[in-house]
Amino acid sequence: MRIWDRDSMQEIWVTISRNKVRSILTGFGVFWGLLMLIVLMTIGSGFRNGINQLVSGISINTCEFWTYKTSEPYKGYKSGRWWRMDNRDIELIRRKAPSVEYIVPMIYMRTDRNIVNGTKSMTAQTIGTTADYFRTVRLNTMAGRVLRETDDNSRRKVCVIGFEVRDMIFEPGEDPVGQYIKVNGIYFQVVGVVGRYSDSGMNVDNRVILPIYTMQEVFGRGNTFGSLTCTSKPGYSPGQVEKEVTAILKEAHDISPTDEMAVRTWNVEEEFKKINNVYLGVSILMWIVGLGALFSGVIGISNIMLVSIRERMREIGVRRALGATPGNIMGQIISESFVLTGLAGLAGFVLGTGIAAAMEFAMDGSSNDGGGLPFMPDFSLGQALGCLAILIASGIFAGILPAYRALKIKAIDAIRDE
Length: 418
Description:
The two termini are 25 Å apart. 53% of the residues lie in helices and 17% in strands. Strands 1, 3, 4, 5, 6, 7, 8, 9, 10, 11, 13 and 14 form a twelve-stranded mixed sheet that branches. A two-stranded antiparallel ribbon has the order 2-12. By secondary structure, it is an alpha+beta fold. It has helices at residues 6-17, 20-55, 87-96, 133-136, 149-153, 163-169, 212-218, 238-252, 268-311, 313-321, 326-363, 381-407, 411-417, and strands at 62-67, 85-86, 100-109, 115-117, 120-122, 125-129, 139-144, 158-162, 180-183, 186-196, 207-211, 224-225, 227-232, 263-267.
């Protein structure tokens, strides 16, 4: 007897529909399990994509440094001393740190209504940095150019503005490149307009970027700056950069080599590892919950098939007496469980993918301007095929135990038992 001929399929359908309520309640477990698996996979991918979006504009080989008060007395200085990084540190790092590729010092300034163009004004963060800044972040140059080394060396009063600044203080369609704006009361010429690349996490849209040495000079900031970012050369890790630069800064500013508080660091690579570990743990938990719900339904179908075999002992015995082979019996039982699992799972698959598509559509084009973690759900073709493969395997698994139970039934014992 062929398993998938018309008569067999009709027999399978009659068996399943013989007790409709039992079949529906049993299949609901598989339906709900696959639905939960798809929804959880979609939520997991949403957080993964959101994290990738949040950090997509940051170089993974980056380490950031900033100052804090000392925690140990050293060379006549008491503990609790505040210190500042200065321009000499940049040259020292270039000479003494072989692992460092780019050095990006940063100064931050922000006052109320500090950006002015004619009668229009706005509040925006002003940062002073070097040309290396634009080599370490992914930005979209929308007009003009970014800062160059010559801007700093010549102390030029030029600036690069974010596109939100352009939209706020210039007329629609007006080209800001070449025009002058007031930044904290000083005129600077706009040389470029930038924005986030692919909506990455580096938000420069509401910033005005100045050459750091020019900023120090015109705003009386001396030769100090607030933070320092360094990237590693190929073949070196951010951890090596962290050790080398920390040691150089401590030596240059008379800080104890064992002082763990004075130089604060943020190693992007280490943070990425932590984020990936958290996501991996969440993903494993979601798979456990989703597969657990699905397998609970599969076990329910397997139990019902065992009950069904007990109810059909006479039928199976007559089949064996008429010459049905073990393969025929086993194939019939597995086919029944496969069809019941498949119908329930297909309904869960359709509804689950519909929910995933609705989530993706609802979040499409949403921004992270509110400051929270971006959520970008995405249910891929690979995930869909994986769920279908799990469904097929579940249908076969649900019928194996009942099929072996049916094979143990002997024709004479089944007829006598009835």
